[in-house]
Amino acid sequence: MIIDLEGTTDRTRDTKVYCNPEQPCLSLPGPNGTRRFEYMLRDGEADDDVLAPERVAALLRLYGSDAHAVLRRKVVYTFHARMAERWRDGRILLAGDAAHLMPPFAGQGMNSGVRDAHNLAWKIAAVVSGSLGSDLLDSYEIERREHVAAMTQLAIRMGQVMMPRSRLQAFAVQTFFRVLALYPAARSYFAEMKYKPKPRFHRGFLLAEGPTKSLIGRLFPQSVVMTRAGVAMLDDVLGDGFALLAPPGTSPPLLGMIDLGALGLPIRAVAVLDKEDASPVEPPVIAVRDLRGELAKLLSGQPPGVYLLRPDRYVAGFFPLKEVSAVVENIAGIVRATWPRIALASAVRSSGTV
Q1: What's the average model confidence in pLDDT over 56-84?
Q2: If you placed Cys at 180, which of 174, 186, 218, 279 could pair as Cys (CB 3.0 to 4.6 Å)?
């Protein structure tokens, strides 16, 4: 059951978890003095009974609710852990709650919907503009499904921890977190939810999956850079489309050797120089400096080479120095793979290409 209050005096920004086996509860802060209480109901409890004013008042008294707070909403709902059998049927694509539902305990339902949109929007734009073929849209579910499933399982496990069903389980949970609180690193790990599974694509719109520590299929790290116009975020320099990026330690002239016009899709070449490097770089390559040395530090364990970044900033491919000459050929290959065979054959016939 959800109870929403306004005008509370509890202005803490923490989510409070009451691992009380008699009545498990979450208390979540909202803006402008609002607060939500969520209570687990028992089997056999009827909605009308728990929503009765006296029952609501009794539940709020359990955890010290403000006596003068205004009750704005009370409702009973059942959460689910579900996923659609498929997320695409021709021109119909499912995203967010239409594609998957998860319990609220990890707070990742809306976040997962945003990740879906982040993955899907640039692909639809590329197909509509004719830059890539419609088979690109098949990669959406391939890339997102595994991470959504992992997040759903995380939410289920967190619910089992937050909503203990016995005194022994509640005692074990409370003792565990009290001990963790004694160690700052452990406390930070849980408080900042660093245990959340990070998205990584093993299949999809990728050149090839790299080794375990490779960045292929992962988000490329953000960093602060210095441009001719001043300080900027690397994302702003990369633009809205594809990008070939030479990180600190990789010679910028390598990008100038690549025929960008032959790649078959809009793409920008960006060289990130070391923070003290002011060497001139010939256009069309865009040169920026790694202002604080952040990118060099984040990539310190990676070999020198050139990264292919997608519009959503995931790494689609990496070319070591000895393979830079194959950039155009490899990118052209994954571009061709997005076109349905019939459409590709028709294009070949109309152009007279053999």
Answers
A1: 90
A2: 186
Q: Which amino acid is at 337?
A: A
- Sort strands 242-246 and 267-273 into parallel, antiparallel or unpaired: parallel
Torsion over CA: 158, 162, 165, 169 (sign): positive
Q: Note the pTM of the prediction, 2 decimals.
A: 0.84
Short-list 36, 106, 103, CA closest to 73:
36
> What is the secondary structure of 273-326 as a DSSP string?
E-TT------TTSEEEEETTSHHHHHTTTSPSEEEEE-TTSBEEEEEEGGGGGG
User: Based on the domain organization, do 102 and 183 belong to the same domain?
Assistant: yes
d(CA 306, CA 321): 7
Rounded Cα–Cα distance for residues 275 and 290 (Å): 5
Is 185 within a domain?
A: yes
pLDDT tens-digit profile of 295-312? Answer: 999 999 888 999 999 999
Same domain, 91 and 156: yes
Q: Distance (Å, rounded) from C-alpha 271 to C-alpha 78? A: 51
Residue 352, burial from CB neighbour count under 10 angstroms (0-12, 13-18, 19+): exposed
Tell how many helices (H) and how many strands (E) occur in the chain.
Answer: 11, 16
Domain that holds residue 67: 2-75
CATH code, domain carrying 260: 3.40.30.10
82, 88, 94, 100 alpha-carbon torsion, rounded to 10°: 10
Angle at 253 between CA 248 and CA 258, to 5 degrees: 110
The pLDDT tens digits of the residues spanning 213-247 come to 789 999 999 999 999 899 999 999 999 999 999 99
Nearest to 247 by CA among 225, 232, 230: 225
Which pairs count as long-range contacts for 198-205, CB under 8 Å and 24+ apart, including other chains? 199/115, 199/147, 200/147, 201/142, 201/143, 201/314, 202/146, 203/139, 203/142, 203/143, 204/139, 204/142, 204/143, 205/123, 205/136, 205/139, 205/143, 205/310, 205/316, 205/334, 205/338
Q: What is the pLDDT of residue 188?
A: 86
Distance CA 354, CA 339 (A): 17
Whether omega for the bond prior to residue 164 falls within 30 degrees of 0, making it cis, is no
Distance CA 224, CA 277 (A): 15
